[in-house]
Amino acid sequence: MSDTQGRGSTSPLPGGDTFPPPTALAEAANVGADAYERAAADRLGFWADAARRLEWAQQWDEVLDWSNPPFAKWFVGGKLNVAVNCVDRHVAAGHGEQVAYHWVGEPGDTRTITYAQLQDAVCQAANALTSLGVQAGDRVAVYLPMIPEAVVTMLACARIGAVHMVVFGGFSSDALASRITDADAKVVVTADGGYRRGAPSALKPAVDEALTKLGDAVRSVLVVRRTGGDVEWTEGRDVWWHELVDAQPTTHAAQAFDAEHPLYIMYTSGTTAKPKGILHTSGGYLTQVAWSHHAVFDLKPDTDVYWTAADVGWVTGHSYIVYGPLANRATSVMYEGTPETPHRGRWWEIVQEYGVTVLYTAPTTIRTFMKWGDDVPAGFDLSSLRLLGSVGEPINPEAWLWYHANIGGGRCPVVDTWWQTETGGHMITPLPGVTATKPGSAQVPLPGISARVVDEAGEPIEPGATGYLVLTEPWPSMLRTIWGDDDRYVDTYWSRYGKTVYFAGDGAKLDEDGDIWLLGRVDDVMNVSGHRISTTEVESALVSHPTVAEAAVVGATDATTGQGIVAFVILRGNAVDSGDELVAELRQHVRKEIGPIASPRQIMVVAELPKTRSGKIMRRLLRDVAENRELGDVTTLTDSSVMDLIGAKLPGTPSE
Description:
With about 650 residues, the chain is an alpha/beta fold. Its cofactor is Mg(2+).
């Protein structure tokens, strides 16, 4: 479809166009409009059907036990093995020679791994972990770069019933130590290093430093040789992957585990300095990530080449690099490096070489590509792409339209997915064969998901109003608790509107069609002179200016207005920073786009923004700087030195 065909203009934010599904995709879509009707008529029956897409060793007795909210149990009495569902059953069905992963290393080395080869590797790793004394229920810390061994380790843990706890590669030793301690992990799987921005980046030293703080709490460190760099070695504790794992037999008798058996812990930033260990279990989680991957990406396992351009170290990697795609027998691309190494067309080179059909990435990355210019992707053949996805934060309409036009050639639906580490899987998103998509809107809950936008009192809001996003019914892939802290789990997510209503922590707006527009975290909704203004709306206005590539906005305490709007902007590559003149121009632009009330009190041009490895801008830290507070938890940042640079540039008094 061309950029101008079939558009409406019902969107309440900039970029008010709608794009109907391509006819051919809609006709062959995995999931049609009838799914909404089936789920509305029998929600639990709908999820039971989704669970039957998996292989169960023992059928469940009850789909959902919600007798003790907010502690849910799904598929009660059912038993399955997650790794068998992701690998073995496909090999048994005759698909062993199908490629599971096309892995691309940053230096240009590649590995092609079939399902049969993946099965062998997972069995070897399962035997190796068992030989190190790992048993069902034990926690294993995983601190690896984006290499196949990361996936193998996760699946090996799942196979033997161990609970994996993946920590982003490159996190500090302090961050690693705190997570190992909280999870009480006895084994760490790491590598000598990985490749990042064209050079080896060591990992083992951070593990060594972390473990000096923990005494003898960790008994074994399993080390993958990736870069060949020198490493310190502790005899009796450290063991090479290639010496232990590669010597193991390629067979392993997998046992089935209860549907509620813990699968993994994922740490996410909290408002306090202590990160939260989000616990996900097995049956319900795999059911929802497999079904949503099948539905939202319209995955055709015999023909698609699927690429989630993210890191396995955060939840998108867990759900949509590992568990969802493998459960659906996908052929995936997995890339170790950064988008600009060795050149800014690296991603598009990979799409062209492997014939990628489905691409899933974050708005922050899309905006980076925008900054680099249209000519970079234009130099590659991207005609294999048929579907695009967005994840991590609300995507501003400008970035959506650029992605659709320059990467999707104007023909690919863009599925803007809202979900969280806590939800485990997609919750609000278009269905590509059903939904007329709106740039910037996640639109409607998936079939089987009950979401509302409510006011302070918990009452549903009218179209056009702004409120809070809540989930009013339990869902299969929901978090079960915060590891070791049930009280914090209840207080954080289930106290605002009662123990049966999940408070997502996000603000949202309903348009006249009933579609949902996510406005970012509630603590990113500013109150300026009694007006509730979303950081997302101000950021979208700033990014719509031709000089701005990316923006982050926070509300800082203001004696006059309650909160003042402070904006941090990154300029496009060809833009010139004219100082006060540019600031005045941007402020006027926001006044024109939204209104005088949204005019930023301060605008600062910066080189980088504080981001997590998942691509999320940490606005909480920007707010700390803007209010001259001590920084909170910075362990999830890619580069904590960014905050020093921003703090040094922040003036002590507001600009006029």
